[in-house]
Design goal:
binds flavin-adenine dinucleotide; seven-stranded mixed beta sheet; single chain; five-stranded parallel beta sheet; 495 residues; alpha/beta; FAD/NAD(P)-binding domain
Length: 495
Amino acid sequence: MRVVVIGAGLGGLSAAAHLVRRGHQVTVLERDSVPGGRVGLLASDGFHIDTGPTILLMPNLLAETFAAAGRDMAHYLTIEPVDPMYRATFADGSELRVLHDREAMTEEIRRFANAREAGAFNEFCEWLVDLYQAESTNFIDTNFGGPWDVLRKWRGIVEIAKHGGFGRLDSKVASFFDDERLQRIFSYQTLLGGLSPKDALAMYAVVCYMDTVGGVYAPRGGMHTIATGLARATVDAGATIRYGTPVTRILRGGDNAVTGVEIGGSERITADAVVCNADLPVAYRTLLGGTDAPRAARRGRYSPSCLLWVAGVRGAAPEGAARHNIHFGDQWEGAFKAIIKRGVRMTDPSILVSMQSVGDPLAAPAGCSTVYAFEPVPNLDGKIDWARDGERLADDLRRRVAQLGYPTDVVVERSYDPLDWEAMGLERGTPFSLSHTVRQSGPFRPNNVDARVPGLVFTGSSTLPGVGVPFVLLSGKLAARRVEEYARATSVVRW
Ligand SMILES: Cc1cc2nc3c(=O)[nH]c(=O)nc-3n(C[C@H](O)[C@H](O)[C@H](O)COP(=O)(O)OP(=O)(O)OC[C@H]3O[C@@H](n4cnc5c(N)ncnc54)[C@H](O)[C@@H]3O)c2cc1C
């Protein structure tokens, strides 16, 4: 089959990697001059600073994606564990290091809290492992025919229920840990999925499994090298990638099946199937005139966004800084309410400060460091007027980073707010897509196929299974399965 992939984000590249060795003629069309999409890079004055994800979870899924293209990841990337995985600081001045090794982490919890909490950690990890196993084949690494398909998965549902996956996340985590600070570190992950631990189902702890049990990793040279490495591997395997190539329309025939794409309003490329990595609601609006996006994408609830400040600075990391530093503010439930329900900024924002230069010599020149400060904020459905207040809020974030003791003698810098994410083609100005409420996850999330447009398949964070590098890599694999099914159904002769 001739397959066109719109977009060389990780979703598009993963789909291409899974298709290229199956006898398809794969062409990836990317509007930017580089691959990666949200896995962005600020390269200037000797700095190489990630402007998107900084935390690599489940690198085995990345290795599988390279392997699908018949390539060895080690030839393209060097992945290293980040240890400590995080340093968490709390408003009471206490500090916890989240470590790779389970025994070392148990000791750290003993020091930080007490022996009871340390004992609970092992039980918590065992629960996470069971939960992940119950969810991964039934709900994560799987395509759905539609909402009713959930019935086909009844065994998986029973298994998840057996592990308490349908209870509330906050109570489940509190059933292991009494210490409120530990409850925070093992449940804050819901925030970018648009949920507070109080509203999230315990099955959402699968993201906590990915870091607490699976571990945090980083590629040498920064996260952007994942995109460049995967793009190279896909091309080595036989795909074509064209950069600076904006797709302006998905073309359809009389039966509404895809027939190709239009580039830059003029050039046309014929295709038997089109895999679309552009943000799904935006793709429906801009590339598929006349076909409405699924209801969840039009009317659904979108995840919070983020205010991001990245900088190459003179000076060293402060004493004790880790690669990833989570600074919790004093609020907890109030923080979720502010961002998700009231659409306003947290009064005492919890922020992540990542220093890629801690452990990665390629990130900054000698004597310099990189700083990446990330504050969750409401998306454009919220009440903040970013055109008016964006610069002031970014200044505020810079000041906070300086107060925390990080070097801020800037050589090069950039900041991103929800208007910037919107300008990159991301619905409601959030890089974190539709939130992961139950009604917007699994079989209820906008599907990766649409019966109204045969031959069109979606990949990326706005479809199944969801947001984040591991899920997006899986979305490419699921999209490739859909293309294979379509090829079989239409019996198009393979090239
Ligand atoms: C600041 C930030 C921090 C994050 N932190 C983490 C983290 O630590 N860990 C983690 O796992 N995840 C993290 N994420 C989320 C993760 O980056 C995303 O879920 C993932 O990268 C999305 O990939 P994608 O393929 O769905 O989309 P994208 O990366 O957006 O790719 C879509 C591609 O399609 C291209 N495109 C769109 N329209 C067209 C068109 N018409 N023609 C041609 N090309 C087009 C775009 O240019 C882009 O390259 C973070 C994201 C951000 C922004």
